[in-house]
What does this fold into?
Amino acid sequence: MDASGRGHTAAGAGRGGFRAERAPDGRYRWQLKAPNGRLVAVTPAAYDTAGEAERAFDGLRAVAEGLTARITHVRDGIGWIWVIPGSRTLPEVRSSRAYERYATCQNAFRRFVVLLAKQPALEIPELPERGPSLRTSDVR
It folds into this structure.
């Protein structure tokens, strides 16, 4: 967690990189910034802990090269956004802003994939076990 207590930043992220931030509702969302500090992507999904947000990001990072996006026109206004569909009703991740041209949006997605693939693996602590563990001697 950073000095303000608001978010977790990957080691060496500086101006760019991964960041999990606590939203006003107390849940966590992650974002990815370019090395110049510009926000590139955000996740609409909310997670109960920063660790869950980090695991979601790391899972996406691991499959970066195989990602495909749906490019869609924004509902209110002019422009295009890219969206990576998720398993829930919300997208897994989306562009942080709308782009004026379709081709610019495509290029922004390509840059996101490259940036995502360059992110170092996060050091995420293991989840604590829930409930009693089942030993093979307990199975009949």
